[in-house]
Amino acid sequence: MNTKNQLLVLLSFCFSISYSQENQMSSSEKPNIILIIADDAGWNDVGYHGSVIKTPNIDFLAKNGVELDRFYVNPTCSPSRASLFTGRPASRMGIVAPISDKSQFKLPDSIPTLPKLLHKNNYQTALIGKWHLGLQPSSGPKAYGFDYSYGFLHGQLDQYTHLYKNGDKSWYRNGEFIEEEGHVTDLLTNEAVKWISEIRDPKKSFFLEVAYSAPHFPLQEEQKWKDPYINSIKDSSRRDYAAAMSHLDNSVGILLEKLKQQKLDKNTLVIFMSDNGAMQDWDSKNEYNGIHPSNTVLGDNTPLRDWKTSNYEGAIRVPCIFYWKDHLKKYKNENYISVIDLLPGILSLAGDNDLPKSIEGKNVWPSISENKAISDQEIYVRGHLQESLIRKPWKIIRTRHANTPADLELYNIEKDPGEKKNLILEEKSVAEKMEIALENQFKKDAKKVNYDKIK
Q1: Exactly one of 49, 77, 162, 320 is catalytic; which is it?
Q2: Residue 101: which region, alpha, beta or left (left: phi > 0; alpha: psi -120 to 50)?
Q3: Could you read off the pLDDT of 144-198 as tens digits, one per residue?
Q4: Is 77 a catalytic residue?
Q5: pTM score, two decimals?
Q6: Known catalytic membership, residue 132
C-alpha cells in the first residue's frame, strides 16, 4: 500500500472513530426511562411510608431519589393509564372507569401518545405488563406506538392461568394471544430483563414501561412471600396482599440489578408509581367461577381517606418516586403533580418541548430535578360518580346523583389531609370559585363516557 492510500485509510479510520464517539455522546444525552407501575398499591403499602410491608428495593429508590409527596392519579386503572399516555385528563376521552368485561371501548386512535411522540425523538419503546386501554390485540399497545409489547390486555387476571375474570384470554406478545406457564410477576420481570439485555436496540435510547398486576387481586402468592409476615400480620387476606407487594418489590430489585450489569444505571431514569390507591376488599363470588377466596382486607391508604373508585385522597394520591443515579439528589418534593404531567416531563428529557395542543400537562422536570415551585397548578380528576379539582391548599369534590342535586365538599388538604372537616359552608368565597373552576373543567370532558349510571 502506497503512502497516499495509507493516509486515506488513516483519515477514514479517524473519521469513523470521531463519528462513533459523536453518536454515542448524542445518545447518552438522552436518558433511558423505565416506568414501573404497581396495580392498586396504597399510600401505606410501601415501606418508606411506614408500612409493615417490607419493600427494601422501592425504599432504596426513595432514599436515593426524589419522593413525590403530592402525586395525583385517577381513582381507577384505565383512566390513570389513559392520562399517562396522552398528557390530558382521561375524561376528555370519555374514560372515567375501568374498561372491562366485553367492552369495545378503547383509547382513541387520533390522539398523540407518549410512545408515538418518543418515536419522533428516536426512542425505542416497550410495554411489558398491564395495558387496560383496549381489550383486543388490535387495540393493544402496538396500535398506539409501542415497538414491543407483552403481558395482558385486561385489568386483572388469574396469576397462573392468565385468564380474565370472565374466562377471556388476555395474555399476549406483540399482538397475538399466547400460552405460557408461570406467575405473572415472574413472567413480566423475566421478559423485562430479556428485553433490556437481548431484544432492544443498544444504539437507541429506550422507554420501557413495566406495569405489574401486583398487588391487585386475585392474590396467589407462594408461601415464601407470605412467611415474613406470619407474626406481623394476623389477617390472612392482608398477609396475602403483603406477599404480593414483596414479590413485586423483589422484581424491582432484579430490574435495578440488570441495569447495573448492563452498565445502564447511570443513564437510566427509574420512575415508580401506583396507578391508583388501594382497594378495601374483594368479593370474588362472581369472578373466576368463584375459585378464588374473597378478601376481607386488601390495601392500606392510611392516613388518607377512602378507597379506590372515590375521589378522596386515598384513591388518587399515591406513592411516586424518581430515581436517577448521580443525576437526582435525594429529597421530598412537596409540589402538587398530576399523572398528566409525566408526558411533557419525559418528552423534555428526550429533548422535545414542542408539545401537541391536546396535551394539558405541565413539564414538571425542572420541579423534580431542581425542586422548583410549580405555580398555578390545577389538578382535575373525574371518576365514576365524583369529580374533584385541586388548587393548593384547596380541594373541591362533587358527587352527582341521578335525580337530586349534587353534593359538594371542600377541604384544606394541607391542614386536613384526611379530609375530615368539610368547609363548604364556612369558606363560601373559596367554594364558589372552586365550583366554577370545577364546572369549567367538567364542560371540557367527552359528552359520552364509559360509565352510565347517572343519566
Answers
A1: 77
A2: left
A3: 999 999 999 999 999 999 999 999 999 999 999 999 999 999 999 999 999 999 9
A4: yes
A5: 0.93
A6: yes
